[in-house]
Amino acid sequence: MTAATGPAFPAGFVWGAASAAYQIEGAAREDGRGPSIWDTFSRTPGRVASGHTGDVACDHYHRHADDVALMRSLGLAAYRFSVAWPRIQPDGSGPVNPRGLDFYDRLVDSLLAAGIDPYVTLYHWDLPQALEDRGGWTARDTAYRFADYAAAVHARLGDRVRTWTTLNEPWVAAFLGYGSGVHAPGRTDAGDAFRAAHHLLLAHGLGARALREAGARELALTLNLSPAVGDPAAAERVDLLLNRQFLDPALCGEMPEDLLKIIDRHAGLDHLRDGDLTLIHQPIDLLGINYYCPQYVADAPGTPADPAWPGSEDISFVHPGGPSTAMGWPIDPAGLTALLTRLSRDYPSVGLLITENGAAFDDDAPSGGRVADPDRVAYLDSHLRAAHAALAEGVDLRGYLVWSILDNFEWAEGYHKRFGIVHVDFTTQRRVPKDSALWYRDLVTTGVIPGVTSG
């Protein structure tokens, strides 16, 4: 049983959960869907743990009605999901595949019937392979193709969907996909990573403009953001590479001079054109924040740059010690308060929404219809208290979407890392709400952080 023991959140605060298309949908070859870079990457030997792929994933494509019913039983007010670009335009451009849009029609209608607001993310890393073959995010044209795709999805769903997010975590798409190569498409070139980052930002701006012109009511951009903690000079540079590289162009129409020097050294500046910052700096209503932990850094003269962090020469990324998740990420809820208050101070023109926060732990298999996950409950409790502390300081935080609703395909980790508040047996596809899901249901119901007691 639970007892309400924590602080209360304001009326109207949005409670929900999140997912991503390639991680849960499956049906990789059905109804005209084309291949994405993640299909190619995951089917390449050695790229994903145990050779896992998203071909089936959580089979959400066929089970979405049951999954929506599950969300309703947890009292969720919002569900953030992504649209698979290869379902809509199998070749990345040209005619729209109506069967792909039909699926999202059904999903949106099911959500609305259950009293759940659909929050659509248009790009969560599954670039059509045909576009990658033409240069992917290193090609400027991909940004324009994204704007066309955004307009096509809005034309079908815009009458029922209020909140539209252009991109999810462009830093990850650019620097893990094109820099370190640990994510799709698996390229390893620092210059390509910076070019991809710029073209992703351009895609955001062009897509936001197309959505606004089509009548979209609420626009968002979602970034993975972390405080950089450690030696001041190292922390400032990592903040520049991770946070300000995306925040300043999108929210201020500016590119930091120190960042331009780093980009020039690795990629040149020919891909940056006059007028790009104006295109990128489109008015948005919400900044989506994906927070997991800070980046801890130290001065380390002579250390080469991490491949995922071109420009991080002479910096060491360190672990501070203490508790970690199954991903090896430090557990630091205070970092969330610090991040939210900093964003509120430095970028006051936009409302904030936590679009991902959660943790992978090595959960036990269901026993007696129950999955005990006390570490995840403690993680969510501490981070929600941190979010509430930011609210108490006047931060314009609109809601919290837990990552994730279901255990799913965790990218290069395959099915080995479980972030879900609902356990998924990937053989039978049986869903079992974990204790964290029931704890979250109580929070959603009361708006008060519940404490877990015995009994």
Automatic annotation (TrEMBL):
Key words of the record: Carbohydrate metabolism, Cellulose degradation, Glycosidase, Hydrolase, Polysaccharide degradation
UniProt keyword Hydrolase present: yes
InterPro entries in the record: GH (IPR017853), GH_1_N_CS (IPR033132), Glyco_hydro_1 (IPR001360), Glyco_hydro_1_AS (IPR018120), Glyco_hydro_1_beta-glucosidase (IPR017736)
Membrane-crossing residue ranges in chain numbering: none
Reaction equation(s) it catalyzes: Hydrolysis of terminal, non-reducing beta-D-glucosyl residues with release of beta-D-glucose
EC number from the UniProt entry: 3.2.1.21
Active site: 356
Gene Ontology MF terms in the entry: beta-glucosidase activity
Family: Belongs to the glycosyl hydrolase 1 family.
Name assigned to this protein: Beta-glucosidase
UniProt organism field: Streptosporangium vulgare
